[in-house]
Every structure is written in C-alpha cells, then in structure tokens.
Amino acid sequence: MDALTRRRFLLASGVTGAAALAAGGGALAFSRLLGSAARAVEPPGDTLVVVTLYGGNDGLNTVIPYADPAYHANRPQLAYPVEKVLPLDGALGLNPALTGLRRLWDDKRLGIVLGVGYPQPDRSHFRSMDIWQTGVPHGPVTTGWVGRWLDDTAAPVGTAVSFEPVIPPLLVGRRHIGSCVSYQGLDLPPWVDPGLVAELGIAEPGEPAMQARAASAYADLLTLQRVIGGMTGSAGSPREVPEPPVPATGTGGESALSAQLALVAHCVEVGVPTRVYSVSLGGFDTHADELSTQELLLRQLDTALSAFADRMAQSAAGRRVTVIVYSEFGRRVRANASDGTDHGTAGPVLVLGHQVRGGFHGEQPSLTDLDHGDLKATADFRDVFGSVLGSVLHADPSRYFDGYQPRMLPLVNTG
C-alpha cells in the first residue's frame, strides 16, 4: 500500500481524530502494555483483579439464605425453591446459574464475605459506586483507593490497567493515574483481508506523529481481536461462546466480561508487570423481571470467572492472581410489585483464586432485624479492600482510607 493511499484511508476513516482523543485520559496501547513484559526488571508480583458489577446486584438471590423462612416470605415470586439452590452449607447456597463458582467453592478457591456495606448507606447508584471506588464513605473525594496506592508507590505507567473505555475513579490518584486499554478489538467483515489492514500499521518515513500513532492503532486492534477471539487456554480449552447482550440500565459497566478477562489472562501469562486490573459487567439494576435478567448476568459472570480461575491455576504467575467481585449495593429484602427488587444496602463480596482462603467470612445479616426494610451490614467494605491491599499489594491499608484503620480479614494467603 503506497503512502498516499494509506494516508487517504486514515483520514477518511476518522482514525486520526480518534487517536488524538485517545492520547489523553490515560489511554494505553495494548502493544505497549505487552511490551512492558520484556522491559520488566523483576518478575511480576502478586496481582489483584477488581470486578465491578454495576447496577446493584441482588445479593440475596446470589448467595441465597434458602433455609430462612423470611427469605421466602418476603419474595413469594422471586425466592428460589430449596431444590434449585446450589447449597454451600445448611443455611446458604448459590444461585443455580453459578455452577462454576460452586465448583471453585468445593475446591477451596472461593471465599464469600457476607453482609458487606458502609455506614449511612446511600441508595444512589452513582454516589454509592463513588463511595466503593474511593474508599471514603463521608464526603466526596477525587481519588480512588487504588489511585492513592499508585501515588504512594510512584508507580510507572501500566501498574494499574482498566480494560474498559474509560478509567474508573478507583484507579485515579492525585499524581498518578491508571491506564485504560479498551477490550474492543477490530472486528473485520469476512471480505476484508486482515493482512491489508495490518499494512496500515506500518510506519511511513516522515509522516506526522499523530498520523503514525493513528495508523499503529489498526495493528493494535487486530492484536486485541486475536487475543480475545482466537486464544484457547493453555490446556486447550475451547474458545468461549460470545456473550448475549446485557440489558442497558444506564448505571455503567461493560457487557463482555469474558473478553476483558481474556486480556487480563494473556497479560499475566506473558509477564506484564501490572499489579491491578479493573474489569466490569453492567446491567444489575433489576427493578422488574429480575429472575431472568439476573440469571443471564450471573451465568455470564460464572462462565467468565470460573474459566479465568481455571486458566490462572495453570501457571505460577496465574496462581498469584486474586480476584475480588463487588457491586455498589444489594437490593431490598422485600420484592416489589414488578417481580423485581429496589435499591438496598449490604451484599456479599466474592474473592477467588489459588491463594484465597475458601469458605464464608463474616456473618450473614438478619432478614428480620432490618433498617427500614434493608439489611444491616455486618462487614465494612474498607476491611475487605484493606485486606486485599495488605495481602496482595503488600501495602499498609491504614494509609488509604482517610484515617480508617481496616480490620484485616484472613482472605488471602500470599507471600
């Protein structure tokens, strides 16, 4: 492809403008992220993957108190019959869609922290998510708890990465900010030759820097597409089935969790020194027709997390990965008139990986001793996040929660 044809194509496609926009806001090319593995001076350390479920996941239909009569009385149409629940003990069980997580539980690779919340809960999606990601429940702040850790460690670019279109507040510090690598590759129609498109990424002598950067984006997008769509697990597991669309709720989050985690897995396996990854799944604002919607979402979550955990178990670097899964709040105990649930307070947090201490942590909230119809939190979210900060990132958690001293929970055994 001659330089003039290439330049005309780039200008006509608008990629030069897109690359200019991507130059800010912490955007990082996937190829540069992968290249950091070769530049790493030391082997990668323990790694934390933060999975955000946007919309307020119904914790009572995720980790189900199936033996409690109050659960069935408050949700006559939404409560799962005992025979459908995947029992974990004599009182609590998993949603029937979570068969992979049940297997991880049996393998002692899944821990569940019960009743997690924060003081004076806020039922706004955006304020509550802001609280969870900043780690400060009183008053607005402009930095996230991971971002403050980045500041403290003077972390280089790529230490914390979000495989989402925008960087979440979680990764924003005062002086340092996480990087953003969108998981969406370049999906070519069958009649387009990938080799021809790849030529667009070859640098031309003397071209403007921004045009060269825009051109290289094509090669980067093709690499992303190969990693997401063409990779198999190291044990030869089959390619993942494309995920069905998630109902839009306007509360944030992405729809392709498996794709995001495939990129995380590849980075871990090739030795990228990133310490924190952020991924997400949206659509959990289930005010109506909750059973079908939440089961769809939980099945996607289960498929993505269990496949990721199995893949990580196959390498030394992967066995040093810990995953934590949370949502901005749970739902109310009583079902509403639309076969759904409204915004609530406390809910379970999942922690999984090879180094996780499997089993229950904390106490299940009472379904009869309520705060105006909502669960009373039995665990503070800062204790959970502080515990993974200390055990996985080897940091002093008291430095990152605005004066709060986290109570360390025995969630993760790390070196």
TrEMBL record:
Matches recorded under Pfam families: DUF1501
Lineage of the organism: Bacteria, Bacillati, Actinomycetota, Actinomycetes, Micromonosporales
Protein name: Uncharacterized protein
PANTHER family cross-referenced by the UniProt entry: BLL7424 PROTEIN, DUF1501 DOMAIN-CONTAINING PROTEIN
PROSITE patterns xref list: TAT
